Automatic annotation (TrEMBL):
GO terms for cellular component: Golgi membrane. It comes from Crocodylus porosus (Saltwater crocodile). Keywords: Disulfide bond, Glycoprotein, Golgi apparatus, Membrane, Signal-anchor, Transferase, Transmembrane, Transmembrane helix. 3'-phosphoadenylyl sulfate binds at residues 99-103, 182, 190, 292, 308-312. It is a single-pass type II membrane protein. The keyword Transmembrane helix applies. InterPro entries: NST/OST, P-loop_NTPase, Sulfotransferase_dom. It catalyses: alpha-D-glucosaminyl-[heparan sulfate](n) + 3'-phosphoadenylyl sulfate = 3-sulfo-alpha-D-glucosaminyl-[heparan sulfate](n) + adenosine 3',5'-bisphosphate + H(+). Its main location: Golgi. SUPFAM superfamilies: P-loop containing nucleoside triphosphate hydrolases (SSF52540). The active site is at residue 99. This is Sulfotransferase.
Length: 345
């Protein structure tokens, strides 16, 4: 009899225990999915008494996670509305220079919780076909963001394309413009290396850099070669200055961004009137890559793609000297106009 009662009690305890564990599992699963699927509460209310500039970093990281979901296209229209998400025109554009470190700059700025990057180069202002599609087309290419955030896009071809300054001016005459530059000869060789790699991928042969950079008939620098022309920064900048005052530009040192990125990023934060949020924690040197990589949080970090940071071919030192001599006066003018001096030879 006693044995029977004990067995019954054990059975009851087992059923109750299973029910309790089941309910617990259900609750965990439900809360988890609610967290992901439902808007947690209106954004403004979440940040209490803090001003916009003082939004606690943890809350911003939460928002960033949520934005990631929206970018992946997992958001419903209702969620977008409830979170006040918008596709905003950029408040700042990295207009160039090609091979200056434009991708690294964009990705690093995107570490800032108040910055949202347009991942792709949009080529709206330099491509007539895209430009003809109108400003709404451009806006729709932008990522979703919270109203207090700023969107940044980069298309390095903007810097050298004739029509672009006027077109950007027509969109927003007070936009902030970022130009990242490298020592002009190194940049030209980097430019060449990218084209060379493209040719090799297609099993095509290509000229040596020396042959393109030096005019064989005069033995002078070939100013018709695009990689040379792009490195004459002052010529391009002068065109932009017909539309925008110099105060609207910020020059980033692309060579320093490679070796010591944080101070360069801090200058950009200041220029964009953003509270300083990018720290040394967000950047770590990866010896295998030979470059700084990005740390977003304890679990998520990334390095730039292998196409960034190519090994350059060796170039005849006399050609390098010739190019450096050629760029020298243009560099001086560039320092004078921008107020930023570099130790370029
Ligand atoms: P190289 O391939 O000549 O080394 P862009 O993004 O404008 O095309 O510029 C590419 C350049 O970004 C690379 O040129 C590389 O040197 C530079 N760069 C700067 N910071 C980098 C980083 N953290 N990781 C990889 N490349 C970086």
């Amino acid at each position: 009899m006693l044995f029977k009662q004990q067995a019954l009690l054990r059975q009851k305890l087992f059923v109750l225990g299973s029910l309790a564990i089941g309910s617990l599992l259900y609750l965990v699963a439900r809360v988890g999915s609610l967290d992901r699927l439902q808007p947690i509460c209106p954004i403004d209310g979440r940040f209490g008494p803090h001003g916009q500039d003082e939004i606690p970093l943890r809350a911003l990281q939460f928002k960033r996670g949520l934005l990631h979901e929206f970018r992946k296209g997992n958001a419903t229209k209702e969620q977008i509305r409830l979170h006040n998400l918008v596709q905003q025109l950029p408040k700042a554009i990295i207009i160039g220079v090609r091979k200056g470190g434009t991708r690294a700059l964009l990705e690093m700025l995107n570490l800032h919780p108040a910055v949202v990057k347009a991942s792709q180069e949009i080529h709206f202002f330099d491509n007539d076909e895209n430009y003809a599609k109108g400003i709404e087309w451009y806006r729709k290419k932008m990522p979703f963001s919270y109203p207090h955030q700023i969107t940044i896009e980069k298309s390095p071809a903007y810097f050298i394309t004739e029509e672009v300054p006027e077109r950007i001016y027509k969109m927003n005459s007070s936009i902030k413009l970022l130009i990242i530059v490298r020592e002009p000869t190194t940049r030209a060789i980097s430019d060449y290396t990218q084209v060379l790699e493209g040719k090799e991928r297609k099993n095509k042969t290509y000229y040596k850099f020396e042959k393109l950079a030096i005019d064989p008939t005069t033995c002078e620098v070939n100013t018709k070669y695009k990689a040379v022309r792009t490195s004459i920064y002052t010529k391009h900048l002068e065109r932009w200055l017909k539309y925008f005052p110099i105060e609207q530009f910020h020059i980033v040192d692309g060579d320093r961004l490679i070796t010591e990125p944080l101070p360069e990023l801090q200058l950009v934060e200041k220029f964009l009137n953003l509270p300083p949020r990018i720290s040394q924690y967000n950047l770590y040197f990866n010896a295998t890559r030979g470059f700084y990589c990005l740390r977003f949080n304890i679990v998520f970090n990334k390095c730039l793609a292998g196409s960034k940071g190519r090994i350059h071919p060796e170039v005849d030192p006399s050609v390098i000297t010739k190019l450096r001599k050629f760029f020298h006066p243009f560099n001086q003018k560039f320092y004078q106009i921008t107020g930023r001096t570099f130790n370029w030879p």
